[in-house]
Amino acid sequence: MEELLEKLENENVKFIRPLFVDILGRMLDFTIPLNEMESMIRDGKGFDGSSVEGFARTEESDLRFVPDMDTLRILPWEYEGFENKWKEAVVFGYIYDSSGNIYEGDTRALLKNVVDRYSHIGIPKIGAELEFFIFENDEKPIHTDQGGYFRSGEYGEIRKEAQLILNQMGINTEFDHHEVAPSQHEIDITYSDAIKMADSIILAKYVIKKIAKKFGKHASFMPKPIATSNGNGMHLHISLWKNGENLFFDESSKGLSSLAKSYIAGLIKYGKEIQAGLNQWINSYKRLIPGYEAPTYLCWGTKNRSAYIRVPEYQKGKENATRIEIRSADPACNPYMAMALIHAAGIKGIEEKLTPPLPVEVDVFHLPEEEKKRMAIDELSPSLEKAIELFEGSELVKDTLTKHIYKKFVENKKIECSNFNMAVTDYEIKNYFRVL
User: Fold this and answer.
1) Are 340 and 274 in contact (CB under 8 A)?
2) Residue closest to 90 by CA, chosen among 23, 26, 166, 162
3) Going along 179-247, which residue ranges are E strands?
4) Would you say the pTM of this structure is higher than 0.90?
5) How far is CA 407 from CA 57, 120, 131, 161, 397, in A?
6) Distance (Å, whole) CA 341 – CA 270
7) Helix (H) and strand (E) counts for the chain?
8) Please, are residues 205 and 261 in contact by the beta-carbon 8 Å criterion?
9) What is the pLDDT of residues 255-295, one digit of tens each?
10) Mind listing the domains of the chain with CATH numbers?
């Protein structure tokens, strides 16, 4: 402890900022002075859970944040007041109730429990592609460039500076580029264990937004901010490991193992049931439409980038890179809950010894209806209302989530749907007001 304190003091760190998320995956934080860190490590830090979305309970609101000190990172920028300059360190952790038990509304703990539950089968490693827009301001989605895929974009400096900062904080990145739509960008985070990846996604979104603000712009991870442009996805690259071996690679076939194919089959079979956890906003479903490189059908393939699951082609010498890519999730989801549901569905496929359907290498949207029926290709849900209906009735979901997370998430999403259905939109005014 003394060595850590000395290091922080030498870096001019004056405050520790604990980080956690609400049930919807939105980052929350508070700050304590450095001299309170030892007390927080020993006893945790109490807060009122009734003010946090999805944490409220009628019988209990006193909760404690207990830091996971392995996640402590120094923010590399310096804050400046009138007379002082200082740095801050951030730390993730777990939420406990007043009885000393892990709080059942903590989705970070949920992911840990799901990974631990199935560790005898294998441990998931996950990489993420984060897509986002850089707009002129936070009032309207006004473009900052007319660039396209790999070309003619502006504000690549935001991507570069965000990566440099993330790298300084121990979060490795491996790729960045301008995306298909004007003003759209992507940064890829190098694979790691599931909990570290979920933490990294939360921090990456925070850093990207902060850097964009310094440039006088606004970074948005909204799934579909502009109706006529591609939306933001968060493609997750997943493999399963045990004893240092990638269980998704089959040496004999130089490709996917039967275990990997069962994992895919589980994701396809239970894809509609877990969808609300991967696409949790009404706006999410405006991204999942044909023609914008977003999946609308529960199928898989190697070259088909409109598929729900894509399998990158095998490259000799890169056996450990064998993985699957689930393309339906968007960056506005709660990554802890999404990864827990994805892993549970994949493992269910392994336990049930499922076999996936044949891979599809064309955009399913263009196939005749008879061909879709012959291939038994199902569609993802077209709306949050339908997704929540299937989510609520799923035994897999109920078995994966805590009762509290399940109940509060469903309640929140039903309220969102109800409020949206009561709202009068610009579309309705434009098309109905003058003529009806």
Assistant:
1) no
2) 166
3) 184-193, 218-220, 234-242, 245-246
4) yes
5) 12, 29, 30, 40, 11
6) 10
7) 13, 19
8) no
9) 899 999 999 999 999 999 999 999 999 999 999 988 777 89
10) 2-103 (3.10.20.70), 112-422 (3.30.590.10)
Who's near 138: CB < 8 A, 6+ residues apart?
218, 220
CA atoms within 13 A on the CB side of 105: 24
Rg, the chain, Cα only: 22
Q: How far apart are CA 45 and CA 18, in angstroms?
A: 9
Q: What 8-state DSSP symbol labels residue 270?
A: T
Integer Cα distance of 8 and 72 in angstroms: 11
Task: Report which secondary-structure segment, H or E, holds 92.
Answer: strand 85-96
Treating both helix axes as pointing N-terminal to C-terminal, what angle do 335-351 and 194-214 enclose, rounded to 10 degrees?
150
DSSP symbols for 4-25: HHHHHHHTTEEEEEEEEE-TT-
Residue 243 DSSP code: T
Q: How far apart are CA 347 and CA 257, in angstroms?
A: 14
- Residue 135 pairs in a beta bridge with 143, 218
Q: Residue 369: which residues within 8 A CB-CB, separation 6 or more? A: none
The label of the residue with tokens 């209302």 reads 385
CA distance 178 to 152: 8
Amino acid letter for position 306: S
Residue 59 has pLDDT above 80, yes or no: no
State the pLDDT confidence band at 60, using cuts at 50, 70 and 90. Answer: low
Report residue 121's pLDDT band, with 50, 70 and 90 as the boundaries. very high
**Whole-angstrom Cα distance, residue 255 to residue 253?**
5
Q: Could you read off the pLDDT of 347-387 as tens digits, one per residue?
A: 999 999 999 998 988 877 777 888 877 887 889 999 999 99
Question: How far apart, in whole angstroms, are the C-alpha atoms of residue 130 and residue 176?
Answer: 9
Nearest C-alpha neighbor of 176 from the set 208, 199, 150: 150
